[in-house]
Design brief:
homodimer; Rossmann fold; 2 domains; nine-stranded mixed sheet; five-stranded parallel sheet; 11 helices; Polysacch_pyruvyl_Trfase (chains A, B); Exopolysaccharide biosynthesis protein (chains A, B)
Chain lengths: 342, 342
């Protein structure tokens, strides 16, 4: 029994063959990283809002192989194939990369969108082996559009693949900002526990001391949940909303997670972002968000200098911003396809 | 007598009407900023190499009005119009901006390329007045493609104008690197003397002391020449080559000029770039050049930290790099036009 398609808020067992053009969204996560969950949520909202003529169908990455087989049976030239965005293109997360390769190299006659990603193939034999596998797979698809979510990735994609490469922000930045009007109290440290972590534990402790004024609650968390096992398109929006509410209660966010910065942007919460192992947050910050007052990126490790930066952020005022026009390159590609087909 | 077209290495008085498709390059500088001269040189080399089917005709910005009138008389739908790239779109250089507006708002039926630029409209009444004038002019042209040379400008262009916006490096980065095999001796300070300057004189003096080992000649210059009055397409290449040779003799370049960093990239010369008033060099560095070992960008003012950075750069090894694939978005637009017309 196939039971792995999500349409709207329902799991469906059989793909609809109703003549409507379909937008197949592969690579949808079931794991508990709220950044990645927010990406898949935002991608759906983007297509549903900008291209309502498409029926949006999500396929969990855990069902990638069966999903591909089922889609192959019903796909027509008007349909669009996509793979989820995020920060996992490359050799660091081979499960995701291998699912992505299968999708790109299977639907070679359909417009194929790789939603905004950062890319990092390590400069070592394993990394270069993975790189060759990806080149082989991606280059089979002449209708593949890779979207880079930062300029460094844009350069890397263009020098690595033959595909068209577009440049837009991370999909989560398509979501509208929200003002919860909460009273803010506390500082939240949203820190990685994975291989991309570079910020030193001693520095984290120094920052906690610095922010602790005896009244302000200081908490540490990660945007990867550990109190649930599994998040799906049916449960992600509620958890995402709860996470935004958590952020909107804070006076300050200290993080090395790119999406924690994005949640801070959306909720108007002061945030200082530290680097990860290959600069994905840093680049995306300078490319899209440097003009936003209440957030900043730093490589600094001198507590005195950090104190100044945090003080400045906590005293900043929010203001309007609009990143919607930055998704224009993606819009044009889908709109062009949609017009050709009509 | 019209005497303001440059075709190849000749000034021509009458535009050729030979049936060949033409590429009209407006906004060509006659002033002595070698960065801007290099941009116009590189743009010509780009079109001549990638699209040799076009006859490339340059029009000096000083002849903008007469040039527009003459081109209007002979232009056909196969022809392409362009305006030179650089770092002067916005309200800081109103002469250039006003020449650009005229070109964009005149040839509204032709594919129009604004070569890679940085953009900066100041957030004050004069800046916002200039902005409105530019919006009015640019938005008249539905075939206008603005090319941004850094992500900050890409965002600003997309949120400011209705035009298509592409993303590529500065045109000078299209030129091939050169290895002169010179013996290197000396440090060159290539510093602005204009309104974009932010680096402090005292810091410059400290850096000179730091680099002065008693044997190493320390010179200060600017990439804007003051020993000639005028540079044109007939004289620019020789001066550009001489500038690259000057750079290729140095052990170290200290600069706040983006194009001095580009000349350092092309000649494999260690270079530390400081900021200008609105971040155009910083952004272009992080977007395209962070992976190049022998150059770096800094906002630092602590001499001890700068000493470390300079030491690291002077001991770095050169390596291959390739930015040609990063011009792909521009290539596709011109190639598509060229194919439609054929």
């Amino acid at each position: 029994m196939s039971n792995f398609f999500i349409k709207g808020n329902k799991t469906v067992t059989v793909l609809p063959t109703n003549g409507r053009a379909k937008f197949f969204a592969f690579g949808i996560p079931n794991y508990t990283n709220l950044g990645d969950q927010a990406v898949s949520l935002a991608s759906r909202k983007y297509i549903e809002k900008e291209f309502p003529e498409y029926e949006y169908i999500e396929i969990l990455e855990e069902n990638n192989d069966e999903g591909i087989e089922a889609v192959k049976k019903i796909i027509t030239s008007q349909d669009i194939v996509s793979f989820v965005g995020g920060g996992n293109m490359g050799s660091l997360y081979t499960d995701h990369e291998s699912a992505r390769r299968k999708v790109f190299s299977t639907f070679i006659n359909n417009l194929t969108i790789s939603f905004p990603q950062s890319i990092n193939f390590e400069d070592n034999p394993q990394g270069q082996k993975e790189l060759k596998l990806s080149q082989e797979a991606y280059n089979k698809n002449p209708h593949l559009y890779l979207v880079a979510r930062d300029a460094q990735s844009y350069h890397r994609m263009q020098t690595t693949f033959k595909s068209h490469v577009l440049f837009t922000p991370d999909m989560v930045l398509y979501l509208n900002p929200r003002d919860f009007h909460f009273e803010r109290s506390g500082a939240l440290f949203a820190l990685r526990r994975d291989g991309e972590k570079v910020i030193k534990d001693e520095l984290v402790e120094e920052l906690k001391d610095l922010l602790d004024n005896g009244q302000r609650p200081i908490k540490q968390t990660d945007t990867v949940l550990d109190d649930v096992d599994r998040v799906t398109p049916l449960t992600r929006e509620k958890l995402f909303d709860q996470e935004l509410e958590l952020f909107a209660h804070q006076e300050m966010i200290i993080t090395d997670r790119w999406h924690a910065m994005v949640f801070s942007v959306l909720t108007g919460t002061p945030c200082l972002l530290f680097g990860n192992s290959y600069g994905k947050g840093k680049h995306a910050y300078f490319d899209w968000l440097e003009h936003i007052n209440w957030i900043d990126y730093t490589d600094e490790s001198d507590p005195e200098r950090l104190k100044e930066a945090i003080h400045r952020l906590m005293n900043s005022k929010t203001h309007d911003f609009d990143l919607h026009p930055d998704f224009e390159q993606l819009h044009r590609v889908i709109a062009r396809h949609s017009n050709i087909i009509k």
